Amino acid sequence: MAQPVFPPSFPPRPRTTSPTPAAPPAAPAPVAAPAPAGSPTSTSHGAPNLEAIVKIAHEEGHSDVHLGVGEVPRYRARGEMQSTEWPATDLSTFQGWLHEILSPQQIDAFFREKEFDGSHAFPFVCIRINLLDSLRGPAMVLRLIPQTILTMEQLKLPEVLTELAGRPKGLILVTGPTGSGKSTTLAAMIDWINRNETRHILTIEDPVEFVH
């Protein structure tokens, strides 16, 4: 039988095809386990976080912590600098340390003014913070502040300081190099006045280190 011939304007019958089966749905991507709570004990650079660094200084009796970009973290013990085996600090690690002890506003102020003085309290010790801009980049020096105020007797200070602390008027200058005990001596004298005199004590200091 001859096939029918359709005119050009007549639409041909569409070809029928069998439906293609749909692909199975993809398996869901694995979900990573949540990170444990709390601050990490180390940074991505290999050095501990700042709290761990300060805790070592506190446990080993060091007076200061010296940190800076491009420098190996160091401790000061009895006036002598001691280097650590941690790698030289990069900028990312240093900024992470800043976020442990400063607010975003304080960090912005430091990078704008290139200096900052403040304080911070860890659960085990208080620190005095000095930030500066060095030739290699930002740096910081942390001074550990004892939480216990020693008396003049415990410090074995000369008795003349007790006599001076008891006078109603005068000017006392306590001078000396870093780590010689200036703040500790003043704290002991103020503590003596606070315990033995009926006076109103006004201190002008920033940051406040000792609370009586």
In short:
Residues 34-44 have a biased composition (Low complexity). By secondary structure, this protein is an alpha+beta fold.
Describe this structure in words.
The protein has helices at residues 50-60, 91-101, 104-113, 152-155, 159-165, 182-196; strands at residues 64-68, 74-77, 80-83, 115-121, 126-133, 138-145. By secondary structure, it is α+β, with helices and mostly antiparallel strands. It has two domains: 50-145, 2-Layer Sandwich (Beta-Lactamase); 148-211, no CATH class. It has a six-stranded antiparallel sheet, with helices on one face. The longest helix is centred in the C-terminal third of the chain and has 15 residues, at 182-196. It is elongated. 13% of the residues are buried. The model is unreliable at 5-12 and 29-40 (pLDDT under 50).
The strand count comes to 6
Characterize the largest beta sheet: strand count, sense, and whether it forms a barrel: 6 strands, antiparallel
User: How many separate domains make up the residues?
Assistant: 2
Pick out the low-confidence regions.
5-12, 29-40
Average pLDDT, rounded to a whole number, is 83
SSE string: HEEEHHEEEHHH
CATH class of the largest domain: Alpha Beta
First and last CA, distance: 116 Å
Radius of gyration: 34 Å
Specify the structural class. Answer: alpha+beta
| Rough outline | elongated
